[in-house]
Amino acid sequence: MKYHLLFVLTGIASLFLSIPKAGLAKSDKLLASIEFSLQAYQQQRLNMDMPAASISLDRQRGLWIAGKRSVWKWNFENNKLFEINLIKNEQPKPLETLRHIAEWNDDLIVTSHEKLYKISFDPLKVLEFQATDQAHPRRLSFGIHVQKNRIFWTKSSGVWSMNLKEQILSKLHAHPPLHDKDQILLDPQLRQLWIIRKNKLLAYDYQQAAQKPQTILEIKYPFTGIMRPDSEIIAHTRHTVLILNSKGNIKKTIPVEGKRKLVLADIHAGQHNYLFHDRFLEIHRTDSMDSLYSKVKLGRVRKAGQMVARKNMLGLILDGKPRVFQIEGRW
Questions:
Q1: Cis peptide before 123, with omega less than 30 degrees from 0?
Q2: Using one digit for the tens of pLDDT, what is the confidence trace for 1-43?
Q3: Does pTM top 0.70 for this prediction?
């Protein structure tokens, strides 16, 4: 069933405070943020491999960065960089450049448009897997989904998978063509591929062997992201956050108040993080049901790419470069 957000008025709540207009409540504190910076020679090394395609905060106080040719670890404890070069060509072709990065148990998974890399540590070992879809006219990488024992890799040619023990990359499903600017959310258990395409939310059901994706939602503004922190799906625009059930039906519509615009979001179990165009960061902790606020000193930004948050650490890709902030307080 298709819904038009303009007419869905039930269950509306607002999580986003109009801070500059109304100010903080007495019980709320505007937390300070501190930006980390590399030494000049290290920043110069990193800049040579930019723009960054993807970042991931790890549990050992560090930021993993997928550059064009290498994976970089920014260690916050000693403020140094560690490089793992994956692509030897100094001028890689567009399909060769790195695209996505994710932690998988104690390993790191990185993809380009054509290859998947599994990086193990102690000792360092890199395994390279080639997707056998060279005959496909478009071989773009759209995302990776990691589970305990399996990786799922969504490409233009279909969904690929690798088991942790067998370490064999195989194609699971074909699917209808994806557009270059599509964003996807893969649900392997339901064999469901969610696609946000401009102002539409589409779903492709592998179990029904559908010939084309079904339009589930069509709204006024373009979607800017889609995530699934738990049993619910959260999709957002610059003006609204939609909470959907597993079938894509709207459970709650959460508008952004006033003239504020939602720029980036990172939503996972236990913590929802929202960054607005006025540089205000809102952190909603679902376990303790409290909210924290900070104004992050970003300076002038032309393009915001990605945000990742882990407790009080915040990683961003802004204008193609990674930046790291620490929010004050004990977490």
A1: yes
A2: 333 333 333 333 445 444 333 333 334 578 999 999 999 999 9
A3: yes
Q: Which residue has the higher pLDDT, 71 or 133?
A: 71
Torsion angle of alpha carbons 167, 187, 108, 83, nearest 10°? Answer: 130
DSSP string, 72-83: EEEETTTTEEEE
The pLDDT score that the predictor gives to residue 295 is 94
3-state secondary structure the chain: CCECHHHCCCCECCCECCHHHHCCCCCCCEECEEEECCCHHHHHHHHCCCCCCEEEECCCCEEEEECCCEEEEEECCCCEEEEEECCCCCCCCCCCCEEEEEEECCEEEEEECCEEEEEECCCCEEEEEECCCCCCCCCCEEEEEECCCEEEEEECCEEEEEECCCCCEEEEECCCCCCCCCEEEEECCCCEEEEEECCEEEEEECCCCCCCCEEEEECCCCCCEEECCCCCEEEECCCEEEEECCCCCEEEEEEECCCCCEEEEEEECCEEEEEECCCEEEEEECCCCEEEEEECCCCCCCCEEEEEEECCEEEEEECCEEEEEEECCCC
Asked whether residue 166 carries a pLDDT value surpassing 80, the answer given is yes
Where on the phi/psi map is residue 319: left (φ > 0), alpha (ψ -120 to 50), or beta? left
**What's the rounded Cα separation, in Å, for the pair 324 and 311?**
13
267-290 confidence digits (pLDDT tens): 998 899 999 999 999 999 888 888
